[in-house]
Amino acid sequence: MNDFTEAIPEQDAPSQDRITSRYICTANHGFAPYAQEELRRLFGAVKSTLLLPGEVFLATLEAEPQEVSRKLGLHPPVFLRHIQPVDFQDTGGLPALERLAVYLSRRPELEGERVSLQVRKGTSSFWEDSPGELREWLQARLESLDAEFTVQDPARVISVYADGEALYAGISRPEDNLSSWNGGMIRFRKEDGQISRAKFKLMEAEKEFGIPFSSFRNALDIGASPGGWTSFLLERGLKVTAVDPALMHESLRSHPGLKILRKNAGEVKFRENEFDLLVCDMSWSPKLMAKLVTGLLYSLSPGGTAVVTVKLMHKKPMAVIKEIIAMFEGERMQIQRAKQLFHNRDEITLYMIKY
Ligand SMILES: C[S@@+](CC[C@H](N)C(=O)[O-])C[C@H]1O[C@@H](n2cnc3c(N)ncnc32)[C@H](O)[C@@H]1O
Q1: How far apart are CA 305 and CA 288, in angstroms?
Q2: Is the pLDDT of residue 8 over 80?
Q3: Distance CA 142, CA 236 (A)
């Protein structure tokens, strides 16, 4: 569960001799201040320096790494997309990179492990070539290390951030980074004939929240046009009822598993418990969206799942999210996760189950 519906944990008074740890933290563009606020709520005072305005910052937290992982696991953040430890910091330049290679090749926790080497650059960096080339350069220097470099299921991640005239690096377990993807940037290949980029949001929700979409049978898609989400659900073998006054993409119109209702969501009626999945990706004010969707929740069977995007509309995001969550919770919806996915722009995604 996220922190929006919970009491903010109490903080001890800051002290000079408290253990601190440092991280490079990443949020979607423009949302770093909210990620900083989430960290403040969990760890008290956060000393932070912006590395990429609105997006990436270096934070010093008053907790040791195990405590940071534990608290982030208990209170998954909405806006903090990725966090990587800084165990090594140096000036930029080749000598610093050589020192980093020596440091890494002596790390016992990497010995005999499957290791992913993730490299990012700031907008300006002493390393002028691509991050991929820096990764190759570094990996070649780590030949003496008895480790298997891989992107699949690593046991450890080496995260490197080359920014301006500084070099930061750290080693962690992938689950401690909030995302096993480099910087939390989960990428999907655009398919031929893909109807909309919106489809990536549902694909990411499937991976991020572990939603077993193929296990559902009958889905309601509200605000479905042009049909990216609908096409994803049809591919997972579901029957779909798509509601939208706008046209669905022509490639979907004669699909046998699809019923299209060219209507406003406020005008449609269904049988009770008709669906076991409800999704909604409506470009609408969040309160009106929540009113329309909660008005249709009678058609979602108990135990059914809902995935809904909440547009933040440049308002106070924390307050908007709290209000929308309260509206759903008042209608027998249990919030599983609220998260700004990498593919969410000015919105977050709510994953809920009806009880
Ligand atoms: C961002 S698009 C949805 C994209 C879609 N999820 C996809 O994957 O292609 C938002 C859609 O919500 C629809 N919409 C907005 N208000 C609506 C309402 N009251 N009832 C039904 N659909 C609505 C719009 O017509 C628009 O097609």
Answers
A1: 20
A2: no
A3: 42
User: Ligand 1 in contact with 246 (CB < 6 A)?
Assistant: yes
DSSP H or E run through 140: helix 131-141
DSSP three-state, residue 355:
coil
Q: How many helices (H) and strands (E) does the chain have?
A: 8, 16
For 206-243, the pLDDT digits (tens) are 999 999 999 999 999 999 999 999 999 999 999 999 99
Q: What are the structural domains, with CATH classification, of the chain?
A: 3-80 (no CATH), 88-184 (3.30.2130.30), 199-354 (3.40.50.150)
Res 5: pLDDT: 42
- As to burial, measured by CB atoms within 10 angstroms (0-12 exposed, 13-18 middle, 19+ buried), residue 272 is exposed
**For 178-205, what is each residue's pLDDT tens digit?**
999 999 999 999 988 889 899 999 999 9
- Region of 30 (left: φ > 0; alpha: ψ -120 to 50; beta: rest) is left
- Token digits of residue 59: 């934070």
The continuous run of DSSP H or E covering 65 comes out as helix 65-74
Please identify which residue in the block is written with the tokens 């609408």. 284
CA pair distance 132, 45, nearest whole angstrom = 35
Which residue among the candidates 121, 201, 311, 339 is catalytic per the annotation? 311
Task: Please state, in angstroms and rounded to a whole number, the distance separating the CA atoms of residues 49 and 59.
Answer: 7
When pLDDT is cut at 50, 70 and 90, the band that residue 1 belongs to is: low
* Ligand 1 pocket, mutate which of 194, 203, 204, 225 (most atoms under 8 A from CB): 225
What is the distance between the alpha carbons of residues 133 and 14, in angstroms, rounded to a whole number? 42
Whether the pLDDT of residue 15 is over 60: the answer is no
